[in-house]
Design goal:
The complex is a heterodimer. Chain A is mainly beta. In chain A, the strands form two sheets. A six-stranded antiparallel sheet of chain A has the order 2-1-3-10-5-7, with no helix packed on it. A three-stranded antiparallel sheet of chain A has the order 4-9-6, with no helix packed on it. Chain A starts with a strand and ends with a strand. In chain B, the strands form three sheets. Chain B has a four-stranded antiparallel sheet, with no helix packed on it. In chain B, strands 5-11-7-8 form a four-stranded antiparallel sheet, with no helix packed on it. Chain B has a three-stranded antiparallel sheet with strand order 2-1-3. Classes of the chains: A mainly beta, B mainly beta. The interface between A and B is large, with 59 and 61 residues.
C-alpha cells in the first residue's frame, strides 16, 4: 500500500497523579510516503524478512507476535542497515521503533526471528 | 521519581483524516514498576559514551527509550545509538538519527543493560534521554 502521510501521536509516561513526560511523535518522525502492514504465520525458528515494498527509510516499525493461541510470544527483531546485523538483541513480543526525519544509515531490512519452531503469528506495520 | 509509572498514548500513521494504522501504546508497554532514568550530557568527541541504567536495576526490562540530540545551536544532529543486550557490542542495529523512540517488552532473561551512543564529529553534541522500565 502506498500513501503519503505522517506518523503522529504522543506517548505519555505518567504515574497516577500527573503526567511526567509527554513525547510528541509528530516531532520525531514527520512525513512518511509509504507504509506496509500485514500478518505472517510461521512454524519455524528461522529469521524471515518482512517485505518493505519499496520503503527505503523506515521511520516507524511496529512488530507484534503471538503464538497460535493468541498469547504474546517474544521474537527477536533484526534491523539491517549498513552496519553489522545481529540476532542476539533482547526478545520482545511487542516492538515499536520511531526514528526522525534526520536519519543516516537507514534501515534496509527488517527481519523477525521466532525463538522456537512452534507457530508464531506476526503482525507488522512499517512506514517510511 | 514515582513508581507504578504507566505508559500510554498512541501513534497514528495517516493521510489527512484517513488513519492507516493506529498503535495504542498502552497495550504495548503497560505499567512500569521500577521507574525512569532521565539525563542529559554534552559530548565533544566521537568516542562512544554509555548511558547508565543502573537505577533501573542490574537486569532492567526496558520498556521505553527516548533519545534526542542537537548541536550547540539547537539544531538537530544525528548520532549513532547502540543497544547492548548481552555483551559489549551493540545488538540492535539502529540507523543514525537525532531522535529515537523505542518501545518494547523485553524478557527478564534477555534484558537491555546499557545504551551507548557516538557523535559524528567532535563538535559539541547535546544528548537527552528518558529510559523507563521494570526491574
Amino acid at each position: 500500500m502506498a500513501t503519503t502521510g505522517v506518523v503522529s501521536g504522543q506517548v505519555l509516561v505518567a504515574d497516577s497523579n500527573a503526567i511526567q513526560n509527554s513525547i510528541p511523535i509528530n516531532a520525531t518522525a514527520g512525513t512518511v510516503t509509504n507504509n506496509v502492514s500485514g500478518q505472517t504465520t510461521v512454524a519455524s525458528a528461522s529469521a524471515f524478512s518482512i517485505p518493505l515494498e519499496g520503503i527505503v527509510n523506515p521511520k516507524l516499525i511496529r512488530i507484534m507476535a503471538k503464538d497460535g493461541a493468541g498469547v504474546d510470544k517474544p521474537v527477536r527483531v533484526i534491523l539491517l542497515s549498513s552496519g553489522p546485523s545481529t540476532a542476539t538483541n533482547p526478545p520482545s513480543h511487542e516492538f515499536v521503533l520511531v526514528v526522525s526525519d534526520l536519519t543516516t544509515s537507514p534501515i534496509t531490512g527488517v527481519q523477525v526471528q521466532p525463538l522456537n519452531a512452534s507457530t508464531t503469528v506476526v503482525d507488522y506495520v512499517i512506514a517510511g | 521519581m514515582a513508581n507504578a509509572v504507566q505508559l500510554s498514548g498512541s501513534l497514528t500513521v495517516g493521510e489527512g483524516s484517513t488513519v492507516i494504522a493506529n498503535i495504542i501504546v498502552s497495550s504495548n508497554a503497560g505499567a512500569i514498576g521500577a521507574g525512569i532514568v532521565q539525563g542529559k550530557r554534552i559530548i565533544s568527541a566521537t568516542t562512544s559514551t554509555t548511558i547508565d541504567l543502573s537505577k533501573l536495576g542490574a537486569s532492567p526490562k526496558v520498556k521505553l527509550m527516548y533519545i534526542r540530540s542537537k548541536d550547540a545551536a539547537g539544531a538537530k544532529k544525528a548520532i549513532k545509538l547502540g543497544i547492548n543486550g548481552t555483551a559489549a557490542s551493540p545488538t540492535l542495529n539502529l540507523p543514525s538519527s537525532d531522535e529515537f523512540l523505542l518501545i518494547c517488552n523485553t524478557t527478564a532473561s534477555a534484558t537491555i543493560t546499557f545504551l551507548s551512543f557516538a557523535a559524528p564529529d567532535a563538535s559539541p553534541t547535546h544528548i537527552e534521554w528518558l529510559i523507563a522500565g521494570d526491574l
